[in-house]
Amino acid sequence: MMIKKTINHNKLYRPYAISSSSVNNFKCNKRLFSIMTETNYDYNYKKQKLNNRFQTTSSYIKPSVLDNNIQWKYDIGIIKKKIDDKLIQKPDGYRRDGIIFEKVLGIIYENEGYTVTPTGGTNDAGVDLIAEKDRKKIAIQAKNYNDNMTSKYLNKNNIEVVFNKIKNDGELKHLGPGKSFYGARLHIYNDNIVNMRPQFVENIAIKHQYDIFDKMIYGKTWLLNYTNCLTQNSIKKFYDLFDK
Prior knowledge:
Elements: H1 45-54, H2 63-88, H3 98-111, E1 115-118, E2 129-133, E3 136-143, H4 147-153, H5 156-174, E4 183-188, H6 198-208, E5 217-218, H7 220-226, H8 232-243
Parallel strand pairs: 3-4, 4-5
Antiparallel strand pairs: 1-2, 2-3
Helix pairs in contact: 2-8, 3-8
């Protein structure tokens, strides 16, 4: 006997997102299925099994919640594409836009609960953004490099120079004498980074007395994956940014 599958044979999963109840904590775990709205899922396993057998539509997920999740997934897909398009473009014909990269990172960090301060200008002493949360300040340097520039200008020696500049110049300029950042991060919109062992990054953190548990170097994949954690407020910020 041939069994004809209905729409209910397709499993409906909750998207990877931040639940409204944990927005203040700004934690995202991709293995946890949580939701973006106040409405809870009406889950009943036996009810779903019956719906699968006898109905063409299911009340397993309330329609309003399903509509919201579909819209959220659509928005995230659009934002991922717009980020990638904007950051790989060369507006002047020669290099990628570093300013837009800083603005994208600013929204990402605000989504995580940080207060973000752009340093502004070219004389930034190695610090493009300062992200602060729980009275801890993190210095951020952003490099929107293509493959060739990444391999040429971000080898191990170059990366050490980046963090040395943050420590020696950035802290003095942006914090004042005798004060230090809690951590420092290098963001690159590229995954073509020289293969470095964790010990290399950890040694830099120890040398400059930064958080040794921090990854410190973040690539393109990290940024795009993190958009799966965006709240509705951050989604709106991205749309506003791209509409300018």
